[in-house]
Known about the structure:
Elements: H1 6-9, E1 12-15, H2 25-52, H3 59-88, E2 92-94, H4 95-128, H5 133-136, H6 139-157, H7 159-165, E3 174-175, H8 182-188, H9 194-227, H10 232-240, H11 243-264, H12 271-296, H13 298-308
Parallel strand pairs: 1-3
Antiparallel strand pairs: 1-2
Helix pairs in contact: 2-3, 2-12, 3-4, 3-12, 4-6, 4-7, 4-9, 4-11, 11-12, 12-13
Amino acid sequence: MLAFNTTSNWPTFSFIGIPGLEAAHMWISIPFCLLYLVALVGNVLLLILVRTEQNLHEPQFYFVAMLALADLGLSLSTMPSVLAIFWFDVHHIGLNACLTQMFFIHTLSSVESGVLVAMAFDRLVAICAPLNYSRILTHYTVACLSGAALIRGATLLAPLPFFLRTFPFCGANILSHSYCYYPDMLNLACGDVTFSSIYGLICVLCTFAVDAVFILASYMKILGTIMKLGTQDRNWKSLQTCACHLCTVLVFYLPLISLAVLHRYTQETSPILYTTMSNAYLLITPLLNPLVYSLKSRQIQAALRKRFGVQRVVAGE
């Protein structure tokens, strides 16, 4: 039966912020604001560059733009609740708002993982079949891969809010993060959550686990091809074309794995470490991705210099 009383139907949830440092929340908000600002400006700038610079109208940079869109969505999804805690000491959120935030966080994380797979495929074709690159990676292919990542994430994760709506929440409803996270909310639900828990695990396996396998397989094939090229100089140059993507994969998966491990052993983890890692999980990726591509991609560096009127100084002049 889904007919619960009013309290069970419309529960509120509480964010804990950073335990033990409540008095310093206003000061803690300063670095958080700066990090969010850098993430937002960096990703918007990447989108503007890919949109306006003709030399960035390539499949590789279209995927970078998709990554920037997902990062923007993640930042904007978590920013209201995180800054509300630190700025206004607002620790409560209603069920509908919490479910909406949770859906966007999980869906955009899935989309980002799917885009990373598409980028691995792009590098695979560029190195293993360079003569067929323009024939395989057409605008249509890029649109299909990006659309597939979006549809997969939205379709697989759409049932999660509906699962949570069927449960009463009869405890204190204190969330472990500064945002709404499906496993966290499921732990607060009363009743048999076995099916919902299994479905959540299936979603993880069908997105992050499968994507990680595809990325690993792509790079095994890429390394095999690079080893056959002969000279070390050619090997190094070929591997350098993958540097940005490899850094992005590490930036995305390392916080994700760390948070999963901490969530598994939450009772043995320091609350401050757990909260810090949960905030870093959704803040580090949008923050570092624009920096990685700005520092490692020569085409984006050239576009930045052109955009801001900075001339490259040549040695000896």
